[in-house]
Hints:
Distance between the termini: 35 Å
Order of helices and strands: EHEEEEEHEEHEHEHEEHEHEEH
Strand order of the largest sheet: 10-11-9-12-15-14-13
Shape: globular
Helix content: 25-40%
Largest sheet: 7 strands, mixed
Mean pLDDT: 93
Low-confidence stretches: 1-12, 353-358
CATH topology of the largest domain: Dihydrodipicolinate Reductase, domain 2
Number of strands: 15
Amino acid sequence: MISASTAPASAPIALPRRPLRVAILGATGAVGQELLQLLDERRFPVAELRPLASPRSAGRTLRWQQQDLPIAAVSAEAFEGVDLVLASAGGGASRQWAPVAAAAGAVVIDNSSAFRMDPEVPLVVPEVNPQAAFAHRGIIANPNCTTILLTLALAPLHGRRPIRRVVVSTYQSASGAGARAMEELRQLSRTVLDGGEARSEVLPHSLAFNLFLHNSPLQPNGYCEEELKMVNETRKIMGIPDLRLTATCVRVPVLRAHSEAVNIEFHEPFPVDEARALLRQAPGVELLEDFAANRFPMPTDVTGRDPVAVGRIRQDLSDPNALELWLCGDQIRKGAALNAVQIAELLQSPPDSAGGAV
């Protein structure tokens, strides 16, 4: 198998500024469906769209821009002549096929964790480290959903006063486990309301009127894989390899929007009004707070929408150098599909137009 590091070193840093031949790997999944919708909504220049999926989905069709497009089984031949691959089919599929597509001349934007920590693969949030995208060698990694949302709030603040430590607790929706988990939450919620017993088959425990610590594999240090993704990916995206960050990740009975409670410690005091002004102007961020009405971001505020809503920004009573804030963002949209499409849009802009928030 070709590794990411052996993708052609001569691969262009930018995508051509013309309509592109685009393949979506994992077109039938929740993120794949959102990618299709976003390409249409944002009028991304598509000359040809190739939906790719596993052999069991081959032969079916999907509707896009008033066309019925046949779904093809992923293969090396499927990437011939393709300019851009948006991949959201899981780590195994990405490890197998992303290098093949890159070797064929496509730029691959991969939504799995397969290449995120590869030092030769950029890990990109366009509002935070856009310049990194242009250093790709055929593959660009889309970060973990919770990390994307977190860095949008951290980057503007770190740009003003360096961050010393971050403590984050996440409240993660069913969509992070895929379309089947979302449907199971719907069905089991009805079961519980009807007086039945909720027995989960997709997740390890029922999410219906319940929550549990994130179900990714536990590591020897007691943290789960999801929590360590947040630590390592945030450090890489923001270019702070020694950032002190700790996370606790929780699954909650919400369909598709993640929430995060974030404590940010700086090396010096950070006036709340200054932080609020920075976040109000930050790209991709929407300030939503009304202290008089006790009204702050909720998952319903961001579901199906692009911005990450931030609010309840306040001084940490236990530390004069720390701030507290709360945020919510659509996991399928900015946490996955939208970020990938924004990376593709960025690659069609001239490299010298890319600036950085960090």
